[in-house]
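Problem 12. The chain below contains 469 residues. Write out its predicted structure in token notation.
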Amino acid sequence: MTMSSSVTIGSRPDCDLVVNVPSVSGRHCRLTRDETGFVLQDLNSTNGTFVNGERIRGAVRVRLTATDTIHLGSHALSAERLLSLIDRQPAPAISFRGAEMVIGRIPGCDQVIDLPMISSRHARLFREDDRILIEDLRSSNGTFVNGTRVEGPVVLNSGDEVGLGSHLVTLAADSWTQADVVQPARPGQPVSETPQSFVPSLTEIATSSSTSIPATELAGILSRPWPLVALLAQAPLATFLIVGLVRTKSPAPILFWLGLAAIWFGLADAVLGNLLDPTRLRAGLSPEGAPALALRLLMLAALCALQCLLAWAIVANTAALKAPGLPVFVLLILASAVGLALGLLIVVLSPRPTLAWAILPVVVLLMWLFGGQWRPLHRMPAPEAAGVVSGFLPSRWVFEGLALLEADERQVATSADGSDPVIEHDLAEDYFPARTDRMGVKADAMALGAMFIGLAAAVFISASSKPGR
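Solution.
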């Protein structure tokens, strides 16, 4: 049995022994065995490493027995546990065949590893000339090569240890000579972590059974339905907050926040829904991957539409809005589609999920500032510059369209005796004066449609032009 000569202990998921308590640093200490015994090294931890109550500094040779106690800060750890890790078996090997392979926890992956530290789609292996590269697929616990976190595509060499969170694997030696091996594929079937197991590539799966890809993708999505339920629940929650918190006699602020909520639905579905990532988008540009991409885009579109329908139904009834339902629903769908395309572009361009999440509030803040409701554009210090900025923001166009639809229904009403019409105040005039800023409902819808087309094109251009894929 081959034995490990070094064990790293810390709270980071790439450590050999993960101790997730507050007193333990990310990489706290390392125990190494050589010909003469053990060396315990403190890795500049915050709270220190202690052996039987005595603090060590740097690398210190120690005599460990199973009865000794090591403290990581205030956390006690038995030496017996570390000694058992020193004698652990080597990381299991997986065989990589074909052009690419996705490793994850859901059945739709090429290599299924059903462990809690593995994300649904964790990492991707792919070939470039005679090299094998690995990239992280925005996993929760990260991907590591020989203990170093993967931030982009990294070349693998024979014998490298790959960390999927805290789970370690290696590639079988024959993985570098099997680029052209093709065997009958069994899509969605878990593969054991042995060198003899055949792992079909995404291209081989599509070729052997293209009609099974949507079913496999759908099974993978529905295997964890709670994210979809949480996203759908945003609609009633957001609309109840809008109606409850927006205290005004005019319906205009409610309409503005309704339009902004529709944009947010698209942004959140794209960034937080985890239904599409750069790898899935790139795979969908090929004929083999198009069915799976189409299914995920269809599910995202259906989710946005259902959110907008719920939001309008709740707001229209609780706030007594009079605008016709169908045109309003069309505007909300267009606004949500723009948010969805913008969210996917953020996903493609962001190297890490946390960066994409951090961008969301900044985008929403800009849409609020220049959407025309917080301060009408013609009343801003630099109205011309503000108008230019607002022209690139969907919040301005959906707000104007909703305000005009509501104003048209409220402006003229028949008097009680049925004789003279009663002219109400044009609520859209306060935000979009007819002489200067008003464009009309059709122009608003066209602007939103043009934004969606431009952003969608940018998404696929960015996805297809990423280097090293």
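Discussion. DSSP finds twelve helices and 21 strands in the chain. Students who got a different answer should revisit the alignment rule from Section 12.3.
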